[in-house]
Amino acid sequence: MPNTVNRIINTFIKNGFFAYAVGGCVRDSLLNTVPSDWDICTSALPKDIKRLFQKTVDTGIQHGTVSILLDGGIFEVTTFRCDGDYKDHRWPEHVTFTKSITEDLARRDFTVNAMAYNETEGFIDPFGGAKDLKNKCIKCVGDPDTRFLEDALRMLRAVRFAAQKDFKIEEKTLASIQKNAALVQNLSAERVIAEITKILLSDHLEQIKTLYDVGILRFIMPELCKCFDTPQNIKWHIYDVGTHSLTAAQFLEKKSYLRFSALMHDWGKPGTKGKNPDGSDSFRNHAKLSVALAEDFCNRYKFSNADKSKILRLIKFHDRQILPEKKYIKRAVNDVGDDIFLDLINLKRADCKAQNFALTAPRLETYDEIERLYRQIKEDKESFSLKHLAVNGNDLKALGLEGKQIGKALSFLLYHVIDHPEDNQKEILLKKIK
């Protein structure tokens, strides 16, 4: 443990109280992972905590939590407690302070999070958390139904831990998640999307399929549920739409907007499914519907405007054909946006790898050539957007153009310069407009 954590714990012990490092920091230490923070629990009451330390903040005083400011760090300290009845499947209506570390650990979510430690007494593990940690098992403390009725977010947390740690969810716990899946409707959008994002950015994002299997996904992401229910009878694909989307996301770097774009890029397929003359499936114009569904999802879960913009543009253009020639690449960069053009190429690569790769593999060479030419365009500072034009709106206004005429003229000139870079001179462009 860090020296500061030891000092805090020892201060309590020297003054006649019990105190331990508890929860995630103990779990992560046993996994040889450096904890992101250290939570401390103690038999001392909040008033005692504030008396023993000079600098404190009442973080959650109603639940017995006080933050200690020491040596430039902030450490949350919570009095041992038993929780009363929960309201809205989130917060206990009241808490009762206790002197027992075992009673405090008994109210926690999973056995691997219900362990405590200090250097005086050593390891406190009344519910077998260390054994479950060794067996890579997520198991509720006590009755799973009780734990999930207390806080429905624990069901998402179980799947998230499984994704982040590559653990299995114990059978009784998993069955309880399936039984209580509808409780997630009581959770705020912010809490739900935070857990979904962590799963999506993990090394085992396929655990999102677990949310579908236990029935949670239909309450938080019904659009993806329809994708898992939509097979693709077409030679280019070997997976249903949902599995294809998850597989594509696995091939992308851990940027949330990028993985969400992969997860949502084909959401329009269930609603646009048809038949080709040969009997195979068709999904014409699915990107347009995917954009609409993704926009609704982003609004529902309060994505930032920046992330939403990137996600919607990537989905809109994910199926756009880009020929490996500079003029076509420049046009695509202008339409998609220079900020995410390489993201689009990477999304196309991931999309390709998640299809019938025996047939789609040759596309990767095309994407490599597009990226090479794009980097060359950037290095040579060739024009591909309005800001690169040798003329601007004021120049065209001086010629007598106004309103929409200016925009149309600039667009015309840009496409001309993309095809004829040597003409990007003010005199030449103004002459063309005249």
From TrEMBL:
GO annotation (BP), single: tRNA processing
All copies of domain tRNA nucleotidyltransferase/poly(A) polymerase RNA and SrmB- binding, residue ranges: 166-225
UniProt key word Iron-sulfur: no
Name the UniProt record assigns to this protein: HD domain-containing protein
Domain Poly A polymerase head: 19-138
Cofactor(s) required for function per UniProt: Mg(2+)
Family: Belongs to the tRNA nucleotidyltransferase/poly(A) polymerase family.
The entry's keywords: Magnesium, Metal-binding, Nucleotide-binding, Nucleotidyltransferase, RNA-binding, Transferase, tRNA processing
CDD domains: HDc, NT_ClassII-CCAase
Domain CCA-adding enzyme C-terminal: 290-432
Example GO molecular function: metal ion binding
Keyword Chaperone in record: no
